[in-house]
Design brief:
single chain, about 375 residues, alpha/beta, Rossmann fold, Arc Repressor Mutant, subunit A, 3 domains, 9-stranded mixed β-sheet, two-stranded antiparallel sheet, 15 helices, 11 strands, about 45% helix
């Protein structure tokens, strides 16, 4: 872990802002070229398409200046101030923006998420356990949405709470939570992977949900329908070795069917704050804090492997489908070496031939 210089952070921002360079591609490019500046210089030799334009240094510097004027911190995943739990996921968001108090993320964090259309009893329960968990020394993470999210934030505003947004840290959504947002920006934290000024669309919320779970030791689900975005957060938590906990509900209430399903699938059943604390103490830090600092990728001759990588692209194209599949499984099925398959998938992603989700699942692009 090390602090980036102004120029290094500018290049990290430029690379992360390049179209189709998501967390997986960013990580692979850094592994291959060692620095963001070197990766940017090499991109024209990898990307065939002309629409993947790297933002100019001037544009990114203007964004950095704006962040400084607004009191927003720009944190790179290699820096000591980057949230430690989030840095442990594979791969972490390369850059996040944070408005507010960075230090509240140094405490153990637990996410509380659930239905926007929550019942009065569900909202009261979220507020109560958030307040009690805060008093026990936990920071509460949620998404500033209506319903359960807002109740969890309100219950922990005095002890420490952080909201992860789909849009930029300066974009308050929904507007009815403006007062809560302002209180959190002053006493808590507002976090986003999106640029300042950006307004979220539906595709941004899975990325936001991945950060919510990534920041946390565990995720508590209160009132979630069977097909809801909340369950995406629970799935990410499972993939990240976080604890998933759910409050049971009436089988007659569609708002609790997702929670009951999670419990059937192995989530911890929780009825009070003590249940949550016991779950979190049982898991300790498990594997969530494993670092990759001592890992050194095997040497690979990228320049002389072009023909091999071109051939691998054909193999991988035939294996992929529109349904995202785990990248490791695709590589195993291909019979290719990890280095060649990773290089081929990187080129496919950058050229729009494949879609790689932030968690590494990969699918064929439908425009082929």
């Amino acid at each position: 872990m090390r602090e980036l210089s102004f120029n290094e952070k500018r290049e990290w921002l430029r690379l992360s802002r390049t179209p189709r360079v998501g967390p997986v591609a960013f990580s692979n490019l850094l592994e291959r070229y060692k620095t963001a500046a070197a990766a940017i210089e090499a991109l024209p030799t990898i990307i065939r398409r002309k629409d993947a334009v790297v933002p100019s240094a001037e544009a990114v510097e203007a964004e950095m200046d704006l962040a400084e004027r607004l009191g927003v911190k720009i944190l790179a995943s290699c820096e000591p101030s980057y949230p430690k739990y989030l840095a442990a996921i594979d791969p972490p968001p390369p850059i996040i923006f944070l408005k507010g108090q960075t230090e509240i993320l140094d405490k153990p964090c637990v996410a509380i998420v659930g239905s926007r259309n929550a019942s009065a009893i569900g909202q009261r329960f979220a507020r109560q356990i958030a307040c009690e968990l805060g008093a026990a020394g936990y920071t509460i993470i949620s998404g500033l949405a209506r319903g359960i999210d807002a109740s969890a934030h309100a219950g922990s505003i005095d002890t420490g709470t952080a909201a992860v947004l789909g849009g930029g840290v300066d974009h308050i959504y929904p507007r009815q939570n403006t007062e809560l947002y302002e209180a959190m920006a002053d006493r808590g934290a507002i976090i986003s992977e999106s640029p300042i000024g950006y307004r979220a669309t539906a595709r941004d919320f899975p990325r936001r949900n991945r950060i919510i779970s990534g920041l946390s030791m565990g995720v508590v689900v209160i009132e979630a329908a069977e097909r809801s975005g909340t369950l995406i957060t629970a799935r990410y938590a499972t993939e990240q070795n976080r604890e998933v906990m759910a409050a049971p509900g009436s089988p007659l209430d569609p708002r609790t069917k997702g929670c009951n399903r999670l419990i059937q699938q192995g989530a911890a059943l929780i009825e009070n704050t003590e249940d949550i604390i016991n779950c979190l103490q049982d898991i300790g830090q498990r594997h969530m804090m494993e670092t990759r600092e001592n890992y050194e990728a095997p040497r690979f001759d990228w320049k002389n492997a072009k023909a091999e990588i071109d051939k691998a692209r054909v193999t991988l194209t035939n294996l992929l489908s529109p349904t995202p599949a785990p990248r490791d499984e695709v590589i195993r099925q291909s019979g290719l070496s990890i280095a060649v398959a990773t290089a081929a998938l990187l080129e496919m992603e950058l050229n729009g031939d494949a879609i790689v989700e932030p968690d590494g699942r990969v699918a064929i692009a439908l425009n082929l």
